[in-house]
Amino acid sequence: MRDPRLVLATRNAHKVVELREILAVALETAGLELVGLDSFDGLEDVVESGVTFAENALLKARYAARATGLPALADDSGLAVDVLGGSPGVFSARWAGPLAQVAGLDRDEANNRLLLAQLADVPDEHRDAGFVCAAALVTADGAQVVREGHCRGVLARAPRGGNGFGYDPLLVRPDGRTLAEHSAEEKNAVSHRGQAFRTLAEDLVRLLP
């Protein structure tokens, strides 16, 4: 009997919950159970040395598949701010660097504070930005697929909303709400991660029958 686990290459519990919701139908169809890296002992964190979201997603998925012998999913996502030439980009998760520890803030809060400070003098009409997500699937026999999703908006001048994580409290969608002001269901319907993984779900069902 095959192992029903599908590994999501993350230790972020928020992502595991979010992806279980987004992939619910595909997971049920394929008879799979999505688990994070914390379900395994001795796994290391992968250095995200790629220069694109797709490269980083594949690095993480390949490692998880090789280390566990199971099919693996991974994503790399971030915020691309137009006026900053696409930054923070692949550095989104660590944009504030050591500032978080120095200031006694959690990483998300430190990243948001730094970005808002950098954009303090940027007028509203030039605050366009978007999330990008590259989602990768690597099977136990080495097949691999990458899909991308995008979510555009403008950046608020202060965080709003208590849902989501990362830069969600800053990106204002066309309806005037930040992603963090959306319910989980609403966010999954429009988010970059939702788009990327819904597309990848078709590959998942096809490659992991």
Automatic annotation (TrEMBL):
Name a single GO cellular component: cytosol
Sequence positions that bind substrate: T10, R11, N12, A13, H14, K15, S77, F165, G166, Y167, D168, K187, H192, R193
Keyword Protein transport assigned to the entry: answer is no
Q: What EC designation does it have?
A: 3.6.1.66
Which terms does the UniProt entry file under GO BP? nucleotide metabolic process; purine nucleoside triphosphate catabolic process
Catalytic residues of the enzyme: D76
Pfam families found in the cross-reference section: Ham1p_like
Q: Which Gene3D superfamilies does the annotation name?
A: 3.90.950.10
Which key words are in the record? Hydrolase, Magnesium, Metal-binding, Nucleotide metabolism, Nucleotide-binding
UniProt xrefs under SUPFAM superfamilies: ITPase-like (SSF52972)
Q: Give the cofactor note text.
A: Binds 1 Mg(2+) ion per subunit.
Protein name, per record? dITP/XTP pyrophosphatase
Q: Which organism is it from?
A: Ornithinimicrobium cerasi
